[in-house]
Each structure stands twice: as C-alpha cells, then as structure tokens.
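FAQ: What does a multi-protein file look like?

Like this. Sequence, then tokens, then the next protein.
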Amino acid sequence: MNQYWPFSGLTRPGTLRERLIVSLDFGGPREALKLVDELGRVVRTFKVGRLLYRNGGPDFVREIRRRGAEVFLDLKFHDTPATMCKLAVEASRLGVRMFDLHPGSHDTMERVRGEVNRVCRAEGLRRPLILAVAMLAGLNHRETAADAEGRAVRLARAAADAGLDGVLTLTAETAAVRSACGRRFLIVTSGCGAQPGWNRWSDGAGPAEAMRVGADYLVVGALIRRAVEPVRAVRELLEEMERGIRLGSRSAIELFSSRPF
C-alpha cells in the first residue's frame, strides 16, 4: 500500500519500509552486514557513514546492494567542485539510492547535479537522490534554536534553487524546511530523541511527530541496534511513523492554504 504525503497529493517514497533508514555507523563491516541480514525483511535502506565506508570501501556498499538492500551514502562530500563531481559520479556508479554533500555555492551544487544526470543518462544508471546537509556540526554555542532553524531553512532553499532533491536535517527543523521549500522537496530527518526505553519518545521529537510535520525519510541508528529484538523494534517504529502520517493527514486541509506549491 502506498503512503501519501498529505501536503502534495503525490505518492511519496512508498511504503513505510522504504521510508525508514537504519544507520549502520557502528563497529565494522562484518557487524553491519549481520544487521542488514537480520533486518532485511522489514527495512529497505541502510545508511553508511564515513567511518564505516573507510573500513569497508566501495565493496562494502556493493555487498549491501547484493543483499537486495538500498544504501544512503552519508559521506557529506565537501571539496573542490571538480572533485565533488567525481565523488558524486562514483557514488552513482555504486548504485546507491541517495548520497549527500555539504551545500556549497549555487554553481557547485548545480554542477554536481548536472554531471550526475549526464553520466546516469550516458551509462544507463539509476539516478540517485542528491541531498544537501542542512544539519551542521560545530555550531556556535550562542546559537539559539531559532538561529539553527533559520540556518537550516536557508541551506534548504539554496539546495532547492540549485535543483537538488532534498536535504538531511534534524527533526526540530523539519516543519520549517517543509514550509519554506514546498511539498515536492525531499526531507530526510535525523536526530529523533528518546527517553530511556527505546520506544518512549520525547514529546515533539519522535518518529510520529517527524512524519506528521513533513519528513519523507527517517534515519534511526542506535535505538534499533541496541534493542533486544531489533526486528520487533523496527516494526514498532514503523507503527509510530504510520501514526504520524495519519495525524498529518487529518490536519492537511487546514494547512494547504499556507503551504507553498
């Protein structure tokens, strides 16, 4: 059954199984592949970050793909425009579902998108989704929540203007990014907080709230890996995501008039 983002009227990324992304950023490739095998029946996409990629390399990504799973390559490309284009092309050739980069100049982001499009057309490759990172580390300690939200919105708008597919951002910034960038812009949300006990989510920061305010994909890591029964944990998490989608659907009519098109 397809799920629908209430602000668009368009089919969004698909079933809930495809909208949950499990982070593999722990241990080494062997432990990560074990989790892929364990969760393959209930999860479609797995996130590979810098440390894990450094340990496993391209062959590790190919192995995940051989197991029938999708990959979010979270390497946050940040280099010269020419090098970023090369990195983006290699990610595309690996067959990843999505990858991310630090938002640079408009010309740089547009150039990366254009080069990926060109190579995918020429080589008959599936074009991956290209995300800009709107959640940045090392922020000034004096920055307020409003400052962080405003920064995320500025970065998201810049990415949208350059033709990128979406952003990686925090749960707290999702609603503002959705409002600013419209209904067709993809939002991959990370950073859902939790109280002790993996399924007791803190108010306003859990998976149901993330989906309600506009997330297309949800990234979760340690809370699933540390669960006594990871498959059961995933299923309960999917139920929370579905609840958030239903809540969003109920309020969609009231919000349509103020949402950008």
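And here is the next protein:
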Amino acid sequence: MLNWAIIGSGDVVNRLVGNSFEKKGISKVKYIFSKNTKEATKLNKKYNYGKVAKSVSEILRDNTVNSVYIATPPNLHAGYIKKFSKKKKFILCEKPLALSKKELNYIYKICKRNKISLITSFYRRYLTRFKFIKKILEKGELGKIITFNYRLFHSPETHPTAPFKPKKNMKNLPWRFQKKISGGGNFLDMGAHAIDMISYLISDIKKIQTIKNNRLNFYKVEETLVSNIELKNKIIGQASWSSVVNKTQDLFEIFGTKGSVIFSLNFSDEVAIQKGKKKFYKRIPFDKPFHKNLIKDTIKKFTKYKLNKTFIIEDQGFKVANLQLEATEND
C-alpha cells in the first residue's frame, strides 16, 4: 500500500491533482501539509485526504508514509527532497527541480546516496493528445522530420497560471517572477514542459543556445527568451517565450517532408495535421485532472519498486533542468 503525503496546497494540487492518488487498496493520501494551513484544510475537505499535518516533522515520524508528492515553489524542493530521501520515501516532485546547476547536482547526489526513487511531474507526456501526436510521428506520416518551432507568448495579465497587472515597485509579485523563489522566468517554469515535449516527441536535446532580455523591467527575471535547439538526431529548431507582449499564442509546429502537425501545449484542444495538400483537424481534449495519468503511472512504478525493493532516479527531470539552467546561466 502506498501512503502519500502531499506537500503544498496551491493551484497545482487543487486543479491538476485532485483525488488522483486515491486507488482503493493500493494508494491513498494520508497527509497534506502546507504553510498555508487554511488552504490545506480546504483541500483536505474537498478531496477527502487523510488529515492536515501540523508540520513536516509529523510526517517524517510516521513510518507508514512511504511516498511523498512535493508541489511547492522550486526554492523549497531541495530541502524537502533531502529530508524525505533520508527517510527512504519515494518522491514525485514538481518541476523545475532546482534553482541552479549547483543545487541540481546536490539533489542528484543526495538521491543517489540515499537510494531513493525520484520522478519529476512531466505530466504532458502522459496525456492522450500528445500520445496521439507521437504515434503520427513514429509511423512516419509526416515523412522525415526536418525542423520544429515552439512559441509561448502572453501579457502579464494573461499568464496561464500567474496573471497580474504590472505596477511600479510591486510588493505582491507572483512567485514565478521572483528569482529567489522560482530561479528564473517562463523558460525555467513553463518552458520545462516544452523542452520535455521536444524530447518526447522528436528526440533528446543535444544543445540549447539562448538569448534573453528584459525590456520592460516588471521583474528581475527574463521577460523574453529565444532558443536555438539542436537534437541528438541532428534535427534543429527554435523555441521562444515572452511574458510581456499583447498577443497570446501557444503554438508547437513540427514540419516533415510529407506534412506538418500544429498544436497547443497548454490551451486549445485542436490538433491540425497536414499531409501533402490535405489538411484536417482533430479535437483531443486534455485529460482532466491533468496529473491523473502521470500519477496512475507513478503509483504503478512505486508499487513495483516497493515490492522488489528497487530504487531508481528517473533522469528526465534532471536532463531538462540541466539543459535549461545551463542555457540561462551561461548565456
């Protein structure tokens, strides 16, 4: 039996997770903990979790808890991973794993030393719509893949998860734009899913070269970033993020010798496929709650690891974070 503790009570837990950890006789949530006790209590009642923990120490003392889901801002990840890895808990952690390459290497070392299983929440690769697109590419329906392009543009007011109205000397800036908490801007936050999706759909990434700037100075992290990306199979493409333009666009395009596929990573259900002169559209809604399929797979893996006394670090989260941090720290 997997007994979970959820650490965090924000939008991710409420909107993306819900009661996905509940599987009768196999998996259940025993605790939820948050520094915001009011929100934790609210979620506990809404999703019928076990109980609201008064502290992390309460969870650490309970030897029946064997799995932990960390859904806090990134600046808290390393500390929680250290505490729970020492107690040999399986860990599912939100992205990005770390604020810097130094911190990322530290996380990897403590996971390896403590022999714990760690998975990063790249839930999009488990969604039906992206599995459908992957099959199209694997079957060669678009011919030989030549290049790709991804864009995520929006204004501060239309940010997908942290909208705000910019003002001078802002005191309540969303944490995603505070470097000490988030580590960077949209490239490190939402860009993690795009980088993972490029790897999942096309090929692992060999190199990323970025240029970033901050034109309007609403915050100290980058507002706009453009990347040239080279894959291990020698395909090259581009990706760009901007959080301060007046148009919202979320567009992933993959071009081959026989056709193309165009889709959204975050918003529209529509997938546009072109083969030669023929073009058709297919609506594939996002599975909800978004984390459901990821958590279902994680439960299977952790149950198997528990039975076989296996410990593993699934390194995709480390690969993505390393690429992003390397690109932003060395540009």
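Q: Is there any per-entry metadata?
A: Some entries carry free-text notes. For the entry above: The CA atoms of residues 1 and 183 lie 36 Å apart.
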